[in-house]
Write a structure and sequence with these properties.
Elements lengths: L58 H20 L2
Length: 80
């Protein structure tokens, strides 16, 4: 339903203030292994859209990369 949603960035507070944002879609609402929504079939979530938090040190980045890979592969498989 959302085709375009521009969000202008007006600045940032620097590395010392950088944090991971908690919250997002509960992992109980997605299918494990595909990251597809249990509520809306064909809708996939990845990265910080899901309520997954890791400690500092790259874990959140790794989750973003891995979950994007999983969801993307599932979407590709369904469209072949």
């Amino acid at each position: 339903m959302i085709q375009k949603f521009p969000v202008p960035v007006s600045g940032y507070k620097g590395f010392d203030m950088a944090q991971v944002t908690a919250g997002g879609v509960s992992v109980r609402e997605v299918i494990e292994g595909t990251l597809e929504s249990k509520i809306h079939r064909g809708l996939y979530f990845a990265g910080e859209l899901l309520d997954v938090d890791g400690t500092c040190g790259g874990y959140n980045l790794q989750w973003a990369f891995t979950s994007g890979y999983i969801a993307g592969n599932q979407i590709e498989a369904e469209n072949q």
